Amino acid sequence: MADSVFVIRQRRGILGALTSRKWWEHAFLRIATYIILINVCFVFLFPVIYMFSTSLKTVADLADLTVLWIPRTFFWRNYELAISGMLYWQAARNSIIISVGSAVLQTVACSFVAYGFARIPFPGRDVLFMLVLFTFLVPPQTIIVPLFILYRNLGFMDTYFPFLIPALFGHGLRGALFILVFRQFFRNLPYELEDAARIDGAGPFSVYWRIMLPLAAPAIIVVFLFSLVWHWNDFFEPTIYLFDQNNFTLPLRLSILSAALLQMLAGQGAGDEFNEAVIMAASFLTVSPPLIVYLFTQRYFVESVDRTGLVE
Amino acid sequence: MQFEDNFTWVILLTGLAFVVPACILSIRVILSAVGVHLTYRFQRAMDGYFYISTWIVGFLIFLAWPLFQSLYVSFHNVKITSSELKLTFIGWENYAEPFLEDIHFLPLFTKTVANLLTDLPIILVFSLFVSILVVQDLPGRGVFRMLLFMPVVIGSAIVIRRLFGEGVSTEAIGVSVQTLSEVVFTYLQGTIADWVLDLVNRVTLVLWRTGVQILIFVAGLHSVPITMREAAKTDGASGWQIFWRITLPMLSPVILVNVVYTIVDSFTDNFNQVLTYIQTVGLTRDFRLGYAAALGWMYFASIFIIMGIAIVISSRFVFYAGER
Q1: Record: contact B154-A291, CB cut-off 8 A
Q2: pLDDT at A1 over 50
Q3: What angle do CA B236, B240, B243 make, to 5 degrees?
Q4: Which residues of chain B are within 8 Å of residue A47 when distances are taken between CB atoms?
Q5: C-alpha of A89 from chain center
Q6: Which residue in A23, B231, B234, B251 is a FRET match for B199, CA 20 to 30 A apart?
Q7: Which residue in B32, B51, B216, B304 has the most chain A C-beta atoms within 10 A of its own C-beta, making it the best mutation to test that interface?
Q8: CB–CB of A229 and B144 under 8 A?
Q9: What DSSP line would sit under A189-213, residue for residue?
Q10: CA-based nearest distance B296→chain A, Å
Q11: What is the CA radius of gyration of chain A?
Q12: How high is the pLDDT of residue A102?
């Protein structure tokens, strides 16, 4: 598209370009595309903007209909309240351990399993891969009770292990999807690499660890980020496995924030300070760590998506 | 966090993840050391099982066994006493209850399926449309692509629910619900009006769920060979024709992937009312574990059937370029 506009302009000069029907068509399409995309992005960005703008409002600003986006004063006390009400640093530490730990384990385990499915022919492979896809369909609620009993018998209640141990086996939150992504990626790599390594005497593990895994960097980035974000935002499983409030993750803390704040502020006789803005501040604080990670990695991420051959 | 009583189990389970593949590897080493002749095929098969054995063990512990147990429990009436669970066999009663007694489950279930049927086309068309726009060679497309994936990053169920409660989702598309409902109720009849309003209320929420689908479509659009489009262009095809005759057929496997993903995503979503209901029945309000297990199994079976139907229908339209 860019080329044709450029070519026409070169041939006839600016004046010629402006009178050409084709140029107008291109310009019109381009502008329409931008308008649509900006609108879509606005809808997608809206929650973040809304959260941030509301989180800085005072009670007066909240009630004032003329204050739409930019509050009269930036009221940072909402954030202080949110941080103390959520016990932010403790909850963030729990969230980080669960999500980073599970993401690392899942990435390694799923790539390992997927390599077997993608590259090595063995009897029953297709049937077993159907089983992998089958696990993707099972809603967590169907098996939650037996799992709960299992973990309780093992003494895993109120620990991070119900999240970490399944991840180690390539299961856990949407493990099947990650196996699928890695499998699609590995399938597109040339076989000569492995053959050469095997001829040079590499065993099955070192073929994977020293040849295939380093090549899988794009897939690793995609899977790691997805796993991290999904574990961070996971709400269902933490509610089942974590009872002690000291072990709560950020989304759990957010869900009990209103009660916690009322209790905290009741003693100080300052109950009216707690309002929607504080909740929004807490929400913003909850989503911002993965958001920051995403902002820093998005360049590699977007590139990786093009190269994983996610779909073939 | 306490370590005393669970430490052994952690070590054992972690060990299991490594010991099982190591065993398979050592079988091969031992066999060849004793002097047994191993065929190439046998060696490769052992390699294959070496890689996936961890997953199989995990499948048995974390999926197959729990699934079997919940199936077993679903045929029983569970009484929770202080020390143990007491099971009494009651046959198919738990499975009959949603049809005969429970007035909540079936409406919730049909509503979930109906929502899926309306959401699925919206999600697919919208994400395809946006991804076609964004794969063009626009200046600044990187920024757009980055922003389009945002909902997945902030898609925390609890945060979204908070915002949804605030009416933010309708605000985002600039439709005020009050004016809209007036218009809708003036021109449409009751049931349809309800349906339209419900859809408008959800539409932003639905759009927020398209991040992954856009991603998959973008990746898919990149794999459509540019030579084909150029050949068509040379033969005088218009952009419209190229889309319908080349891009869409080449993209059809990707569309199938997206259909499957969307169905799974909406059925296992934390927002899902059926799942919330099962959780309420089983774990928080009634503690009727047997009934919850039966509901869970019926739900799971219906996902399976719906998925099967979707795959059978759409696979008739899927075109694989590699096949001749």
Answers
A1: yes
A2: no
A3: 100
A4: 151, 154, 159-160, 163, 168, 172, 208
A5: 20
A6: B251
A7: B51
A8: no
A9: S-THHHHHHHHTT--HHHIIIIIIH
A10: 5
A11: 26
A12: 94
**Phi, psi at residue B267, to the nearest 5°?**
-80, -25
Asked if residues A147 and B66 have their Cβ atoms less than 8 Å apart, the reply is: yes
Nearest to B45 among A45, A123, A298 (CB): A123
What digits encode the pLDDT tens for the residues A134-164? 888 888 878 888 888 888 888 888 888 889 9
B152 contacts in chain A (CB < 8 Å): 226, 229
ipTM (interface predicted TM) = 0.82
For B:89-118, CB contacts with A below 8 A are none
DSSP output for A236-284: HHHHHH--SGGG--HHHHHHTHHHHHHHHHHTTT-GGG-SHHHHHHHHH
With contact defined as beta carbons under 8 Å apart, do B209 and B123 qualify? yes
Per-residue pLDDT of A48-98, as tens digits, reads: 888 888 888 877 777 676 667 777 777 788 888 888 888 889 999 999 999
Q: What pLDDT score does A70 carry?
A: 77
Asked if A168's CB is within 8 angstroms of B14's CB, the reply is yes
pTM, entire model: 0.85
For residue A308, give both structure tokens. Answer: 């994983």
Judged by CB atoms closer than 8 Å, whether chains meet at A279 and B162 is answered as: yes
**Count of beta carbons in the 10 Å neighbourhood of residue B306:** 15
Total count of residues recorded for chain B: 324
Q: How far is CA A267 from the centre of its chain?
A: 38
Test A208 with B14 for CB contact under 8 angstroms: no
